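Protein 1 of 2
SEQ + STRUCT:
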Amino acid sequence: MDNVKKLEKELKDVIDREKEALNEAYDDLVIKLQKERDRLQKELRREYKQAKKYVKKNPEVSLGAALAGGLVAGIIIAKILNR
């Protein structure tokens, strides 16, 4: 009986250590993901500002691109709906 209690305690200790290790790994992963999110948000803001500047400098090109994109999207949608 003494042996069983000893094994139970050892198993409980191993499980507790594993839980601790998993919690630490999870916390590390959350921190890494938050840093990556922040980096991506910063990069997206920078790209948005550059695109906004480009549109201000070249409104006719931007309008043409929007028109072409709208036409292509309209054609695709029309073909899909006419099936």
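Protein 2 of 2
SEQ + STRUCT:
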Amino acid sequence: MTAPVRDLRTIAAAFHGTVLEDHPVEEGIGGTVIVDEVDPGRLLEARPPRDRL
């Protein structure tokens, strides 16, 4: 099952104002979402607040 492009855009829009803004968002295996090019040293900072999801 593939995620509609608009859903991926909605997910990407939820990252606005966070360190994940402007990172590529793709669909992974089994409908998972992959956010690419995240600096491993900023993973905790990159985690979006729950109310944005």
